[in-house]
Amino acid sequence: MRNVCGTTISEALHQMDFPGGGSIAIRSTHAPDHLRGAGLDFAVLDEAAFMEARVWSEVVRPMLLDRQGGAIFLSTPCGRNWFYDLYRLGLNAQEPAWAAFHFTSLDNPLIAPAEFDTIRRTTPERIWRSEYLAEFVDDAGQVFRGIQEAATVPLSPVPQPGHRYVLGVDWGREQDFTCLVVIDATTQQMVALERFNKIGWQLQRGRLQALVDVWRPQVIYAEANSIGSVNIEALQAEGLAVRPFMTTARSKPPLIEALALAIERGDLALLADEVLLHELGAYALERLPGGGYRYSAPAGAHDDTVIALALAWHAAQSGGVSLDFA
Fold first, then answer.
1. Is-contact 9 1, C-beta < 8 A?
2. Residue ranges in the chain modelled with pLDDT below 50
3. Percent of the chain whose predicted confidence (pLDDT) is above 70
4. What distance in Å separates the CA atoms of residue 171 and residue 154, rounded to the nearest whole number?
5. N or C: which end of the chain has fewer CB within 10 A?
6. DSSP conformational letter for 21
7. Exposure of 162 by Cβ count < 10 A (0-12 exposed, 13-18 middle, 19+ buried)?
8. pLDDT at residue number 325
């Protein structure tokens, strides 16, 4: 705690107390009930769309009543949730106490227009519209679009001479599934999918070897997390061209977004496999309070085919060059 010109600054409490009695405090909304307390003169809710709706209605708004305080809500949209409802109030001439403002990233004079050209070419439509154009997109949490339109590959393709094949592997054993996905990098088509669990690692590696014998992939990308590293070492010892991919908070978003962009733009054709299409359709994006993202399947569901497909597409696009993140 330190004092500057009569103002007490506490970094531990994230608070500034002024000589005249006023104060400014920064608080987290992760536990809304911990915010309850004395009345407020003004509140700023940053990234409001990603807060629980009750933060405003049950906690902050009642604290503003005694002093007839005001509030401002700042946020990237997150679908048409409670923040969208408040934004609509600001557009309603019958609600003079509210005002709404809309700014896109393109309105920022500090960002060069050429930067947006690159972002637009390499960003899925959902992220571009929500994160850069600040639009309220109904399917803001849906990661993959155009799934059914991309499912055009017959269920029994066969290897073609002269084509380059790659393979993606996501490991599982008991509850999760091990998934193997082969992509024809020459035609950019998914050509094989195997999914199994409740069998030992040696037998799993044997099934992978059988798939390799059929498709002769140029490179195999396998998830290295947990038991993956042990299986990868065993496969490498057998002479397979397996490369590890460590899935982290940093490496996963670009991996998933590259796959989403490929499906959305028709660059990758999929097998019409029901499990795959279901997992792709259910896969979701969650915006974290700190501003980052988390990609995952819904609670209790699986995403094994999604990760295996993403790794195979990563292999197809890498041209044999490792694109892993440290």
1. yes
2. 320-326
3. 94
4. 26
5. C
6. S
7. exposed
8. 34
pTM of the model: 0.67
pLDDT attached to residue 320: 47
Please tell me whether residue 8 adopts helix, strand or coil conformation.
Answer: strand
Residues of the chain within CATH 3.30.420.240 domain(s) are 147-318
Q: For residues 184 and 165, is the Cβ–Cβ distance under 8 A?
A: yes
Q: Give the helix ranges, DSSP H, for the chain.
A: 54, 61-65, 82-91, 113-122, 125-127, 147-150, 201-215, 228-237, 252-264, 274-282, 304-318
Gap between the Cα atoms of 285 and 140, Å rounded: 8
Structure tokens at 41: 């003169």
Q: Contact at 8 Å (CB) between 268 and 168?
A: no
Name the average pLDDT for the chain. 88
Residue recorded with tokens 């969208």: 84
| CATH code that applies to domain 147-318 | 3.30.420.240
Which SS3 state, helix, strand or coil, does residue 152 take? coil
**Residue 179 has which token pair?**
């998934």
First-to-last alpha carbon distance for the chain, in angstroms, is: 37
CB atoms within 10 A of CB 155: 8
* Cα separation, 94 vs 318, whole angstroms: 56
Tokens 């405090």 — which residue? 25
Distance of alpha carbon 318 from alpha carbon 165, whole angstroms = 12
27-59 per-position pLDDT tens digit: 888 888 888 877 899 999 999 988 888 999 999
Tokens of 24: 């400014």
pLDDT of res. 171: 94
* Angstrom distances, CA of residue 92 to CA of 2, 117, 302: 46, 34, 43
Distances (CA, A) of 77 to 29, 120, 248: 18, 18, 25
Q: Which residues contact 85 (CB under 8 A, 6 or more apart)?
A: none
- Supply the pLDDT for residue 322: 40
